[in-house]
Amino acid sequence: MASALAPQDHFQPQKSAPSAENRGEAGTFGLPILERLWRSILAHKITIAAILALALVSGLVLTLLATPLYTATSRIEISRQQDNVTDVEGVETEDFSRDLEFYGTQYSLLRARSLAERVARSENLAGDDSFFEAFGIDPDVALSGRSRADARRKAERMSLVTNLLEDNILIVPVRGSSLVDIQFTSPDRGLSARIANAWVEQFSEATLDRRFSSTNDARKFLEKRLEELREKLEESERQLNSYASSKGIVSLNANQDAEGRTTQQQTLAGADLVAMNEALAKATADRIDAQSRANPSGGINDKNLTNSAINGLRQRRAIVASERAKLLTQFEPQYPSVRALSSEIQALDRSIAIEEGRIKSSGRNEYAEALQRERSLKQRVAQLKDQLVNQRSNEIQYNIYQREVDTNRELYDGLLQRYKEIGVAGVESSNISVIDNARAPNQPSSPNLALNLGLALLAGIALSGAYVFAREHVDQSLRDPSDVKSQLGLAPLGVVPNVETEDVIQELQDRKSALSEAYFSIGTNLSFLTENGVPQTMMLTSSRPNEGKTTSAYAICRVLQRMGKKTVLVDADMRNPSVHFLFEIQNDAGLSNFLSGDDDLEKLIADLPDQSVSVIPAGPAPPNAAELLTGDRLAALLRRLSEEFDHIVVDAPPILGIADVPLLVSRLDGVIFAIEANGPKLAAINSAIDRVRSVNGNIFGAIVTKVTSHNSPYGYGYGSHYGYGYDRQRDSEKAS
């Protein structure tokens, strides 16, 4: 057996993978930043295009589904001071030293919440359901869970209206002038114009109210009267609450007529009685159900049939009983294994009996608890009935107090409304002038299709960039075949394209196929590994299963056979053999038989239909494959095969996790790694390489398998391009 010499310089494997600082221009990470970016974009161009298309479609759909909004604008002029019509020296005042402070104050007043409340009250928006419908809001849903009292409810609706007004009003000063635009946006064009004009009107009135609020005697009288009514209302409410507390009357909700007077209400005792009566009905049903499930007659309980623990014990007993029956066919009942299974069956029977007893006891306890709960609820319902009867007589006086409260509140609200509506005569002219009243807009101000598509495109670009960045930094698999040398420190022996066909044997037999051309290029590279050409013994392995090492091992054998070399393929993966599946042959005898002492080598070599290569299957799976590989039988096998064959190719198991490969390395000339593109992480591959080198194994290089068109931006070669060309040419010939 010829020993493998050191490979030539251009295939000389490095002893360790280069560091990130020493990669230089060899790998992808040594490229200029723009070229790296361009390659990343090309590598993920389909995903990027999909993200951009999805972003644009989302922007279009959201734009089409968005509710059109209309903005109405009312323009006013705010003078520094009102016209001084009584001053004979001039009509207008020319003191503009504090314009900045004045107009800043006016802009703040236009945005004030108090002004929004004035607009809401003046337009009666809190009671206008069409206002809420325009914004797509159901006030009953928006205010759910809050107080149902009338006054509190009105306040909450007013607060909701005020928030809507503040959120949709926009004050835009006209730069370099005293003009101000008041813009209101809503889904209703008429409502937008209505609110914008009302905003201007209420701002003008609020300005006058602030200026002359304390100059009218009538307003003072109303204020005094309102204070008296307020105290009277508070006193009547205190009397009502005090009486309700003393009599234990707790009102949950109240119905009111059109004038706001309380007509009917429900108390806590009544609600408790309804709830307890429902609970009693449910408890009675539960007691009947528990009584039926308690099964006092001692028959089979339904729980025994559905209990997972009992079913598991019974299933386990059936399995143990089956195993005991099998042993009884070979051994006597006193055999230790049979006795152990008999003891386990007895223990399982006891466990099943205990579990059934526990379930019966649980059913009786549930029935007792349900019965006790029903009796307690019956007693509580009787108590609530007596309490409700007593409250009925106390509600007469309670209703008297309630009517007094309603009367005082009605008087107070009416006088308060009169106080708000009273006018002030003889005021001077306002400094607020309306330039343009708001009109209902003809076109919606939003959504803007062009703007939304632009924003969607920017969002798509950002998402695409984030996706590419994440993939480039998270995906640490081998994507660029040139990284075999720059990242792993191995000699690149070739690149194998990924094929869709399931019949790999037929694909390799076609010499014009992409797969056959790729492996022929690999065979050419193998001839430069030693001074004597292709190594006599070589082993193909990988870091994990299903990376194409078995296919590569067979393909290399075919290439060597085409070169006139007699080659044998040995399946050394005795734990998970796959060569016999590839060739559809029997695995009754093989490598494990020889390692176990069978010297009839001719019987172990399988005959293939095409007689292209000879194959030694893995054979029956041994209890411990590593122990067979530690003996001298492997070396004896290699000596006998080297006398008959020119080359021996060993299909070894994956490296990580098992000890077979380190035992095989010392017997062979070297190792060839099969690395799946876009497959295992570089860290796992480096760990596998380090494990081979730790036993002084000679690594010839690596074959990158299952390379797809997505790897083309990384500039892979080594024979794959012309292979694809032949494949396309062959398809064209078949089509013609």
Write down the overall mean pLDDT: 76
Can you identify the CATH superfamily of the largest domain?
P-loop containing nucleotide triphosphate hydrolases
**Distance N to C terminus:** 51 Å
Report helical residue fraction: 55-70%
Strand order of the largest sheet: 7-13-12-8-11-9-10
Number of helices: 26
Oligomer classification: single chain
- Estimate nothing, just give the exact number of structural domains: 4
Overall morphology: flat
Counting DSSP E segments of at least 2 residues, the number of strands comes to: 13
Spans of at least 5 consecutive residues with low confidence: 1-30, 82-94, 296-300, 713-736
The CATH class of the largest domain is Alpha Beta
As for the CATH topology of the largest domain, it is: Rossmann fold
Rg result: 46 Å
Briefly summarize what is shown.
It is built from 26 helices and 13 strands. With 736 residues, the chain is α/β, with parallel strands linked by helices. Strand 4 and strand 5 (262-267) form a beta hairpin.
Q: What is this structure's SSE topology?
A:
Elements: H1 33-43, H2 45-65, E1 70-78, H3 99-110, H4 113-122, H5 129-134, H6 139-142, H7 150-168, E2 169-173, E3 179-186, H8 189-212, H9 217-247, E4 251-256, E5 262-267, H10 268-294, H11 302-306, H12 308-328, H13 336-421, E6 432-436, H14 449-474, H15 483-486, E7 492-497, H16 504-509, H17 514-526, E8 537-541, H18 549-562, E9 567-571, H19 579-583, H20 591-595, H21 601-604, E10 614-616, H22 625-629, H23 633-644, E11 647-651, H24 660-665, E12 671-676, H25 682-694, E13 699-707, H26 720-735
